[in-house]
Amino acid sequence: MNENLERILPGEIKPKSFEDLIRDVHEKGLCGQCGGCVSFCSASEIKAIQMSEDGPPRYLNKDNCLHCGICYLVCPQTHILNDELNERYKYKPPIGNWKKIISSQAAMEEIRVRATDGGVVTALLLYLLDHNLINGAIVSKRVGPFNRIPYFATTREEFLEAAGSHFDISNHVVKLEDYNTFIPTITKLKTIPHSDMMRIAVVGTPCQIHSIRKMQELSILPAHVVKYAFGLFCNANFSFHTSGRERMEEKYEFSFDDVENMNIKEDIMLELKDNQTLHVDFNAINDFIRPACFACSDFSNIYADFSFGGLGSKDGYTTVLIRTEMGDEVYNNALREGYLQEKYDLNTSIKKSEMLAKIIGFSTRKMERARATLEEKNLI
Ligand SMILES: Cc1cc2nc3c(=O)[nH]c(=O)nc-3n(C[C@H](O)[C@H](O)[C@H](O)COP(=O)(O)OP(=O)(O)OC[C@H]3O[C@@H](n4cnc5c(N)ncnc54)[C@H](O)[C@@H]3O)c2cc1C
Ligand code: SF4
Ligand code: SF4
Ligand code: SF4
User: Fold this and answer.
1) Which residue in 33, 119, 232, 259 could disulfide with 106, CB within 3.0 to 4.6 Å?
2) Spacing, Cα 16 to ligand 2 middle (Å)
3) pLDDT tens digits along 130-153
4) Ligand 3: nearest atom to the Cα of 75
5) 182 Cβ inside 6 Å of ligand 4
6) Ligand 2: which atom is nearest the Cα of residue 70?
7) Which atom of ligand 4 is nearest to the CA of 366?
8) Is 348's pLDDT higher than 90?
9) 231 strand-pairing partners
């Protein structure tokens, strides 16, 4: 057992196993399907557990489980190691440690036309790749008009292809009820060579970055290959189903057949065929929110090197919270070398404080939502 694990699990304590994770997380409706347990399972070679299409991960072969407890430790919903991580990442409620808040965009138009907001995530990934600071990045890739999958991108072309997180539902090839906005990007980590020469970036939601940080805290392979954690803001993820959808169409007087794109920012934005954008408040579509997201308290991705969202910026720009020294250095170098531009004037303290107020507001509400959910389930 490595010494970090020994610190958490002193010799005489029997580690918890996947069965405990099922009891304490899955059965309480808390599994956000981040993929952490499956990605870092000690028995991954012999396939003890696997992701499932329609719910929490499950045993593939229970007899192969080594009862090592890693899955339990890395799960963001067990909250083990939160004190250690809060100390390491200098957590201050409600949005964590941050050095700078900026609204910027990619300088390359090629990125901007594909990007979700300002394309800053893709521009920074390209900066890292061009300077041989990473071998690649775990992102998500569109594989159809409707579906994205986790993807390890290693070339400029692949980075550009991965840009954006628009939920393009224009073609209706897949039925809406089959559509889930959450992509378990970190399951790709299993496929990355564990070599000490390997340096990668990971783009992920707060639950995914949390799982990676826990794994790094415990020095579990291949945690050491993740050098840059790109965190996305996340209020919730959505699973579409027919009954809720019909009520939403009725309430907002539109048809899902006319939706061309979907984006998440201050609310859900549905771009319709007639170029109108319909704004739908998160509270109005509680029906679609994945149950585990109600119990999740991190909006701004508190353990990332930098966090990104559309919230607080005008269209075509990304809001960036720079958190770590490394994040600061990368952002400043990319800006200096012309990968990014901060075109509109945000240098007045009033505008920055407005952006900050929005992030604090969303973070606080998400924390309150999580507390209420856990209280309702008698879990706190
Ligand atoms: C599921 C989800 C929920 C979000 N919720 C909010 C929110 O509530 N409020 C808010 O302000 N912002 C939210 N965001 C962040 C926002 O949509 C943008 O991703 C962010 O502003 C970065 O924009 P960009 O143009 O700089 O990124 P881009 O340059 O377009 O790059 C985006 C990167 O994210 C990757 N990606 C796309 N989808 C996923 C996914 N599901 N999981 C992991 N990686 C992915 C892409 O492959 C790409 O590498 C959310 C993003 C996602 C994916
Ligand atoms: S082998 Fe370890 S990590 Fe894998 S399922 Fe069993 S207890 Fe969890
Ligand atoms: S939240 Fe993530 S780590 Fe925890 S059980 Fe679900 S998939 Fe596994
Ligand atoms: S709200 Fe976002 S970060 Fe939290 S569990 Fe859901 S997808 Fe993960």
Assistant:
1) 119
2) 9
3) 999 999 999 988 776 556 788 999
4) 3
5) yes
6) 3
7) 1
8) no
9) 204, 307
* Residues contacting residue 216 through CB under 8 Å, at least 6 positions apart: 223, 224, 226
Q: Residue 66 pLDDT > 90, yes or no?
A: yes
Q: How far is CA 288 from CA 49, 98, 179, 261, 363, in A?
A: 27, 31, 10, 17, 20
Give yes or no for residue 33 CB within 6 A of ligand 3: yes
Cβ count near 360 (within 10 Å): 16
- For residue 234 the two structure tokens come to 């996340």
> How far, in Å, CA of 129 to CA of 376, rounded?
46
Instruction: Give ligand 1 pocket residues (Cβ under 6 A).
Output: 115-122, 139-140, 148, 162-165, 181, 183, 185, 203-205, 232-235, 237, 264-265, 308-311, 318
> If DSSP codes are grouped into helix, strand and coil, which group holds residue 154?
coil
- Distance CA(125)–CA(127), nearest Å, equals 5
Q: What is the pLDDT of residue 170?
A: 45
Structure token digits, residue 40: 């870092």
pLDDT at 322 (0 to 100): 97
Closest C-alpha to 39, from 182, 208, 165: 208
33 lines ligand 4 (CB under 6 A): no
Task: Record the pTM.
Answer: 0.92
Looking at the DSSP bridge assignments, the partners of residue 50 are 58
Q: Which of 114, 165, 271 to mutate to test the pocket of ligand 1 (most atoms within 8 A of CB)?
A: 165
